[in-house]
Amino acid sequence: MKIGLEVHVALPTKTKLFCNDLAYENQDIPNSNVCPVCLGLPGSKPVLNKKALEISANIANSLNCKIPAKTSFVRKVYFYPDLPKGYQITQLDGAIGKEGYISIKNKKVGIRRVQIEEDPAKILREKDYSLIDFNRSGVPLNEIVTEPDIENLEELKELIKELRSILYYNGVDINQEIKSDLNISLAENRVEIKNVTGIKNLISAAEYEIQRQSQLIKDGKDVIMETRTYKEDTEETVSSREKETEEEYGFIFESDLTFYETSNIKLNKVVIPSKIAHELAEKNGYSEETIRELVMFNKRNLYLLSNTPKEDFSKAVALIEKFYSFGIMDYSDNQFEMMLKYDVSSMDKGTFMSRIEGKEPIKEADKKEIEEYLILTIKQDSTLQGREDEKAIGFLIGKLKQKYHMDSKEAKEIIEKTIKTQKVN
Ligand SMILES: [Zn+2]
């Protein structure tokens, strides 16, 4: 079995690829972020967004690609209403990244190409007419094309996870609906599934198609070379009745743009989270799977765990999980470090919160003072005497919170204990 993948992701830039319109913000009103460039009006000229070039180069670098000395663009010529200038600007031979690979558990999957291209406009299909929104026209995309090195569904899932993790560490929004093309061949003929939206659908399309082709082979039938479409509602692929031939597009050099030198692009240190998870597991003698879960899509966790000494490592993992379980996402490095000195495993939320806020547990000596204060308070207030009901205890909790900055649980414990001892005496 051979599976290859082409994924398209939108890049995290403020403005579009070839003009100064906002790429993602204020998109509610259709056709509000548009200009002659992204509307494809005659006479308009594209100007390359250098930030998109930089992000793409870094993605290519993270995927072990060769980055050519100069990168350039081509026009992919086709006519469609979402592309009024009659061509899409993309890269092909001038791609920012070539011949890379991505490591998954047992192998390397080749990366044929990482290229920059513009997103066309969005077509909204109504019953008997269509509307076009050009806000999306010119949004910067990266197309990542793998070699057909994936040999089963497990590897495909691993590859997708690994790729998304690397993209996330390059600042890409991984919650976006990633558009992919998938090619799968169990026999000789290659079947391409075009325009699958979202990761869940991608896996489901692959599952269906593998099953379909296996069945054909089992029945002694031919698998036809064709392009298919994934139907979300029935979770199956259907023939889109297009002949699968070599690309019929005309590609011509984009002479409105120049050759761009890549030597001056700032390349960041490559971060491969799964590799770091592996190293942390080895170094600290800890479960790799747990560390992967915490760091693959969380830069903060990776930072915290990478900076934790071995003797505190398992406490740090437990602490991060505790923060999750209490739904606390915005804690400082100092708070994290401070919490490492406690055993948080059995701590309830109230105590946990008061520790984060820097409140130390009450010492035995302080407890004595608090008890004396309580006895005195009850003595001085006749309405409190001899009472153990919630209202009275609530009143006393308020007093202790105010005077000793205790949390409710601690206060309640000490009040109940004091009342009990008083009764015995
Ligand atoms: Zn524009």
Automatic annotation (TrEMBL):
Positions of the Aspartyl/Glutamyl-tRNA(Gln) amidotransferase subunit B/E catalytic domain: 1-262
GO biological process, any: translation
InterPro entries listed in its UniProt record: Asn/Gln-tRNA_amidoTrfase_suB/E, Asn/Gln-tRNA_Trfase_suB/E_cat, Gln_synth/guanido_kin_cat_dom
Top-level division of the source organism's lineage: Archaea
GO molecular function, one term: glutaminyl-tRNA synthase (glutamine-hydrolyzing) activity
Any Pfam family: GatB_N
Record's keyword terms, sorted: ATP-binding, Ligase, Nucleotide-binding, Protein biosynthesis
Protein's recorded name: GatB-like protein
Native source organism of the sequence: Candidatus Parvarchaeum acidophilus ARMAN-5
